[in-house]
Amino acid sequence: MQDRVPSISHLQFLVLGTLVVGELPGREIRRVMARFGVRSTAAAFYQMMARLERARWVEGWYEQITVNDQAVTERRYRIRPAGVRIWTDARAFYQSVGDAAMRKRWSDA
Question: Are 77 and 57 in contact (CB under 8 A)?
């Protein structure tokens, strides 16, 4: 566990946490984000995913699927080991903050 605020944004945390359970297409990740109140354009979402790929936290690829007898190409993602590590570290950090807050009152001192 790290003892400093993680260098991962709340959106990155949400996406990586979504992918911890397994690979998903981009549209499903966006659906999960919407359930948590996060709305973004497709362009903004895929830019964020490209940054996660450059950081080597996720891996993305294209896959051909059929929707209503129509061939469609979709982008799928899976979390990489570095992504699991940063997500796990961030989760542990915030859990430790919550645990500390429950054990004692915070002061400005």
Answer: no
